Automatic annotation (TrEMBL):
Residues 36-167, 169-258, 262-350 form the Ig-like domain. Pfam families: C2-set_2 (PF08205), Ig_3 (PF13927), V-set (PF07686). One of its GO terms (biological process) is heterophilic cell-cell adhesion via plasma membrane cell adhesion molecules. It is found in: Membrane. The gene is LOC109196111. The keyword DNA-binding does not apply. The lineage of its organism: Eukaryota, Metazoa, Chordata, Craniata, Vertebrata. It is a single-pass membrane protein. Keywords: Cell adhesion, Disulfide bond, Glycoprotein, Membrane, Repeat, Signal, Transmembrane, Transmembrane helix. This is Nectin-4.
Length: 417
């Protein structure tokens, strides 16, 4: 906005202006920003008695691909001048020289001076001295300055310049760098706002993780005037940080509201040690931690098939009935894309003599802790305590029934491996 004294010196043409913004097809009327000058002008005009010629223009901002209205209207107050032609000139990124490109005569049929471009449509009204143009499917190359010229007889020409700004909303994305467990700082995730005009700002909301994370932001500027903003989030990939949510926030003049992309930090790791858990007297579950979650496969040493009295569902193994067919060492494999670990379950169904006390004896082992696993035999009544004391070995049989030959069988098994 110029000062009043500057405006006075200008052609009357420019005295009345309003800004106009066309964003996402929505027209926002701007404010008259020269109100104080207009009062002064009115006084001047009354004094001089001159014709009051005014061209209404404005400045236009449009999102790439949308339709822009280039407003232009001549106000002829108390004038005998005749309008003979409306001419449009443009100076754009594509063609930086100011060239005539459309003329409109009393026939109202627009003529293209050079190449025809059907994206331009004359939507004004010649008799109304309205030169308004519409430009659809606006591209970056259209950005520039458009001049609307009224040729009057005998007065000459009156014109106004309409700047056209083209914005390009960014393409936004977050990309997981798939960090695996470790103790050194690594890249967790990048958030990208690509091809934005004007450049987009990208920031992270990290909540409680604030001081555990570090961010960097880079801008890549392209020849066509767009910019790609890439913001990276770094941290130490610990188990504690796994599963925390952060947010990438993107803001730009090209988008009306901020865009928020939530992201859950994932630290990937192979299955940790595999433990056996007794769910009930007849069911066992293979327990581990892994990211992504582990898949479980049960097998039995020395046998290609599991016995028919065993039902397997994911991590769970269920014994349907107690027969001596069950006897043996079972293995549970926990695996994901980062690795695999094994857990073992030793099952022994005691002899008929013992079956009154219904004897199922399970030895559950994690491969990791075989060396450390201590034997733990308890009477069935103490099963729960046994479970708490050692997740590795469970006994569901009285020591009298089971202990000697189970021990031997187990050791045989372990020695053969
Ligand atoms: C000029 O024409 C356009 C398109 O028809 C219209 O929207 C606008 O209101 C007109 N301008 C004036 C000042 O009458
Ligand atoms: C701008 O240039 C970049 C790099 O050449 C390109 O990827 C992008 O699509 C262009 N954007 C527009 C709106 O033309």
């Amino acid at each position: 906005m110029g000062s009043c004294s500057q405006e006075k010196e200008k052609q009357m043409v420019d005295l009345f202006a309003f800004s106009r913004a066309v964003i996402s097809g929505k027209i926002e009327m701007g404010r008259f920003f020269l109100a104080p000058c207009l009062v002064l002008l009115a006084v001047l005009l009354l004094g001089s008695g001159a014709d009051a010629l005014q061209v209404i223009g404005g400045s236009v901002t449009v999102v790439q691909g949308d339709t822009a209205i280039l407003p232009c209207k001549l106000r002829l107050i108390d004038s005998t001048e005749d309008l003979t032609q409306i001419t449009w000139q443009k100076r754009t990124r594509e063609k930086p020289s100011n060239d005539n490109f459309i003329t409109v005569g009393p026939s109202q049929e627009p003529q293209f001076v050079h190449r025809r471009d059907d994206r331009f449509k004359y939507i004004g009204n010649f008799n109304d001295k309205n030169g308004t143009l519409q430009l659809s499917n606006v591209a970056l190359k259209d950005e520039g300055s458009y001049t609307c010229i009224f040729t009057l007889f005998p007065g000459g020409t009156k014109k106004t310049e309409i700047p056209l700004k083209v914005t390009v909303p960014p393409f936004t994305s977050v990309m997981d760098n798939l960090p695996t467990l470790g103790t050194e700082e690594v890249l967790f995730v990048t958030c990208t706002a690509a091809g934005s005009r004007p450049p987009a700002e990208v920031r992270w909301l990290t909540g409680v993780l604030g001081d555990k994370l570090r961010t960097t932001t880079n801008y890549i500027h392209y020849g066509n005037g767009t910019t790609t903003t890439v913001s990276s989030l770094f941290g130490v990939p610990t188990r504690e940080i796994n599963g925390h949510q952060v947010q990438c926030v993107i803001s730009s003049h090209a988008i009306s509201t901020e865009e928020t992309l939530p992201f859950i930090i994932q630290v990937y790791f192979s299955p940790t040690e595999v433990n056996m858990k007794a769910i009930s007297g007849h069911s066992f579950e293979c327990v581990t931690e892994a990211n992504p979650n582990a898949n479980f496969t049960w097998s039995r040493y020395g046998q290609s098939l599991l016995p028919s009295v065993v039902k397997v569902e994911g991590a769970k193994l269920q014994v349907l009935s107690l027969t001596s067919d069950l006897n043996g060492l079972y293995q549970c494999e926990a695996s994901n894309t980062y690795g695999r670990k094994y857990g073992q379950l030793y099952v022994h169904v005691a002899s008929e003599a013992c079956s009154a006390a219904w004897a199922l004896f399970g030895v559950l082992l994690s491969l990791n802790v075989i060396g450390a696993a201590a034997w733990c035999f308890h009477k069935s009544g103490h099963f729960q305590r046994c479970l708490e004391e050692s997740t590795s070995i469970y006994s569901m049989c009285s020591i009298k029934c089971c202990s000697p030959d189970i021990k031997d069988q187990y050791h045989d098994h372990m020695q053969k491996r």
